[in-house]
């Protein structure tokens, strides 16, 4: 009974945090009207990882509470993608990416082996998205418009998902993905905080 209560609380807290997870980053971009430090490649890879992951969970009829936040995160990432293209003066290009994402999502469920293969690559795709953001930060040597709050919330939700996956589906692929992504999210968070503090000192 106690474990069920803890599981429900974990699922609810994750869903609640994910409902606003990208808001700090969205507000930072809208306020600055610039995308310094925010990696487009990271966002695109993250979107691919989210789409593959939620499609895999739905395909195998996993309990909705274990993945319900992903459609919300995808919607927020699309808003971020549009903002980045808008402030970079390339808004028309966003339509091409949106069409590719929709087409790719439809392709995933054509055959079982396709979604299984995509899921086996999902950890690498999601991991690559975090490494792309780290590379962008290292190259610019400043946090720019990257929101530490967004990365802190992302780290929390992945930590919680390690627990919920371990006590529900026990899917090894999913569990490994969350462990890897948690470590990389924390790495990005610490890097952003480091550059933010260094920027304040230089001022």
From TrEMBL:
The keyword GTP-binding does not apply. It is a multi-pass membrane protein. It comes from Tetraodon nigroviridis (Spotted green pufferfish). Its main location: membrane. Coiled coil: none annotated. It comes from the Eukaryota. Pfam families: PQ-loop. This is Solute carrier family 66 member 3. Keywords: Membrane, Transmembrane, Transmembrane helix. The keyword Membrane applies. The chain crosses the membrane at residues 6-28, 40-58, 70-87, 174-195. One of its GO terms (cellular component) is membrane. It is found in: Membrane.
